[in-house]
Amino acid sequence: MQKRHLVPVVAALASALAVPAAVAAPTAAAPASAASSALPSGTRSLAAVLTADGNRFDRNWYDYDIVTEAVLAVLKAKPNSPVGVLTRGDEPVTAFIPNDRAFQVLAADLTHRWYGKESQVFSALVGAVGVDAIESVLLYHVVPGAPISSRTALRSDGARLTTALPGATIKVDVLSRWLKLVRLVDQDRNDLDPLLNPRALDINRGNRQVAHGIVLVLRPLDL
């Protein structure tokens, strides 16, 4: 089937030029470095980073309110969910976090309706796929193990990352090291794959949990 691409392309280009307000800058001063056997000493969790802006829906489509609410909704419904790893800063992971615009695109794709508010997007996604599917999608964005810096990612063309969702992987496709363009190839062959946002890399750098912003939502299957 042909890829559904018009709206995602527009959103992806806009996202690549936007700087998330809450977490654009790394939270530690240490320079980016390749992942190694020596873990960073910082234990600030990604959950702490995501909720640092007050944890509310707003009008900024380029921060991470929807993914934050998704994590909280899963943990409320399923307190023992593996998604809880994002609250434990001593457990090393790398997360690829879609901004709010990415979820707006996903909601439009699933429901065939464009929602103008973040709260509407979130409600539409919960109604369309349910909490269990949202949990699976979130886990698909988490890679356990030593944190992957952007420098490492740019040197990892062709690598296949094992995610926290059992049996699910992501392939790294480096399009340009100079422009810091990296595509993550997911398991859904019917839609565009997300790019890392070059202006939202190494979030929470210096800690054992790091994140990189992405401009579309990774899909573990053909949603």
UniProtKB/TrEMBL annotation:
- Keyword Signal attributed: yes
- Enumerate the UniProt keywords alphabetically: Signal
The signal peptide stretch is 1-24
Name the Pfam families for this protein: Fasciclin
**Keyword check for Iron:** no
Q: What SUPFAM superfamilies does this protein's entry cite?
A: FAS1 domain
Where would I find the FAS1 domain in this sequence? 43-222
User: Which residues fall in a coiled-coil region?
Assistant: none
Origin superkingdom: Bacteria
The protein's name is: FAS1 domain-containing protein
Q: Which organism is it from?
A: Terrabacter aeriphilus
